[in-house]
Fold CRAL-TRIO domain-containing protein.
Amino acid sequence: MENPHSPISIPEASPKPYKKSFVTTLMEAANLRSPFKEDTYFTSHLKASEKKALQELKDKLMASYGPDGECTMWGIPLLAEDEKADVVLLKFLRARDFRVLDSFRMLEKCLAWRKEFKADSVGEEDLGFKELEGVVAYMHGYDREGHPVCYNAYGVFKDKDMYERIFGDEEKLNKFLRWRIQVLERGISLLHFKPGGINSIIQVTDLKDMPKRELRVASNQILSLFQDNYPEMVARKIFINVPWYFSVLYSMFSPFLTQRTKSKFVISREGHAAETLYKFIRPEDVPVQYGGLSRPNDLQKPASEFTVKGGEKVNIQIEGIEAGATIIWDLVVGGWDLEYSAEFVPNKEDSYTIAVEKPRKLSPTEEAIRNSYTSKESGKLVLSVDNTSSRRKKVAAYRYIVRKSTLE
């Protein structure tokens, strides 16, 4: 028996094959590398040489700080013989390919920087960047594997007044850098630091409208701070709304990146954010501005995912709606550019179908639809997405709740 709530596909046309652009081919090639495989941090999984390096690093720390020395990071005593300390030390070792002396020097510099920067307390500070919160850099939800996700978008700084207000002088720049570290520290506070646990975050960077030249100094300093003091803290770097010229830039700096770093990269062209993010993050956890369903005052309900093929019309039928009940729904199709409508079909044969939302073309930039309808009689709601004029397959998601009438 068919699920009454599942999308029903009605193919109406066959899409024609099309040639991929050079940039598309380049982007896909970048994503065909072996994907990054995150370390489990189980010491039993280490090679003999890696176990030896871990012990040597512990010995160096003990010799340098002594048994009573203050040597903590993210609230974890690094001289303690426990698995949390091992997770932190292994991050530094991996960042330097298990070269003990290089790892030790990196660790020492990081400890000194954290003390000078007062990194342990930055998470509680009010740095006065209310206008940037939830816009420029922010933690938002988790990926499908449970990693916290940090979103970054610097397009707002194309506004010269905004740029001057935030980066106008060195003092302002340093304050911004402190705020950016604060966002990262709050994300790190969500990690387990436990073998087999969640020990890194996901970075999503939106390159749309990013003023490259103006932000070069800030970008370089942020990158330097992250590389020097937060090794192996990012499991995947997803770049979305990537402009055409990014492939040229990537080819220039690619030779300077390790294969391990490049294997963490996912590159997505403009208009493909939703389909890229859905591979790693559930639709209900993706912000609406990136083709997801997540917004303030959320429905707090998982979404159903489906695809709409090129030349296809899909109807989603939600049955069993009683008289007086209110149905609230969210619906999104990545890169829309198709026709959407909603209608209520009563159960009684002599009743008329009601057009809840008349057919309308939705542009690629539109966010997820949220609407509601209170039925006067029992029936079903039909949500239609018509992709018959397109050749491109699109990812989509929907969810709904039905609230029964309180009237007896």
